[in-house]
User: What shape does this take?
Amino acid sequence: MKGKVHGYGGKMTLGERLYLGEIFRGLGITIRHVIRNLLHTGDMPTVQYPEERRAYSPRFRGRHRLMKREDGTPRCVACMMCSTACPADCIHIVAEEHPDPAIEKAPASFEIDLLRCVYCGLCEEACPCDAIRMDTGIYDMAADSRAKFYVDKEFLLNNTTDGTR
Ligand code: SF4
Ligand code: SF4
Assistant: This one.
């Protein structure tokens, strides 16, 4: 079937090459939004962030947290399943013996490099103890140095789940 081919090496019509149609279409959208905004119709898609926050799906994966046992110690048993499953290689765990002989190991350190993380959720899927979750709802992460995105065990154990820090 013969048809127009777009993309690299494809033939474009003169109108497409001039971009005029698209320019006017874009201007039309902008003008429509300006008029709606001026008339305060209240249906503008703009979210007045940070005062107003978009409602995310409960399935949204935000910043990680480590779960605690009843005594406040990490539920994690340093099995390395999460770090093995992680495609970004951004979880670093050092294991140590747990004082309770019924529990084999515990994390001496547990660090995540949040700048390398791709928020795929494979770590929480892989965890056999439900020790790591991504249900904090925290998505607005900002810092003035790269080192601050390298979060440790204490930080992860004290993350909240209500989207605040
Ligand atoms: S969400 Fe994905 S990339 Fe991020 S730490 Fe977990 S497994 Fe690694
Ligand atoms: S968070 Fe879960 S998967 Fe990762 S080391 Fe701890 S127990 Fe294993």
Summary: The chain has two domains: 1-46, 65-157. The CA atoms of residues 77 and 106 lie 5 Å apart.
